[in-house]
Amino acid sequence: MGIVEEAHNVKILGSGTRYIVLAHGFGTDQSVWKHLVPHLLDDFRVVLYDNMGAGTTNPDYFDFDRYSTLQGYAFDLLAILEELRVHSCIFLGHSVSAMIGTVASISRPDLFAKIIMLSASPR
Questions:
Q1: DSSP labels, 78-108
Q2: pLDDT of 10-20, one tens digit each?
Q3: Which domains, ranges and CATH numbers included, belong to the chain?
Q4: Which intervals hold domain AB hydrolase-1 (predicted)?
Q5: CB neighbours of 46 closer than 8 A, spacing ≥ 6?
Q6: What pLDDT, on the 0 to 100 scale, is given for residue 60?
């Protein structure tokens, strides 16, 4: 496991050939997907992670300047995909993570086959 995976509590579940990334909303962590994940395991490799400052992420990694904008979180998402060698994924983002996925896709549109926004935050 790499430093990015460790810092964000990355979990990869399932046996499918396609990747789906589930990104939680503000004030929650990856556990919000516990009822959806079992339905995806046969068809996808499910990537779960916690945004920095959520769940059990290490507070030593939190940088107020980096995370003062969504760009810092988007860089983290891209780093996770790079470390996992994900070349294309479906991204499902809830709340603020929908916007994080959108920001990340502007930098690397090739990594995102689809973006699903669930109750996306407007900013």
A1: HHHHHHTT--SEEEEEETHHHHHHHHHHHH-
A2: 999 999 999 99
A3: 3-118 (3.40.50.1820)
A4: 20-120
A5: 11, 12, 13, 14, 19, 20, 22, 37, 40
A6: 84
CA distance 7 to 18: 24
pLDDT tens-digit profile of 32-41? 999 999 999 9
- Measured at the CA of 4, the angle between CA 11 and CA 86, to 5 degrees, comes to 65
Residue bearing tokens 């973006």: 115
The pTM of this model reads: 0.93
Q: How far apart are CA 77 and CA 4, in angstroms?
A: 9
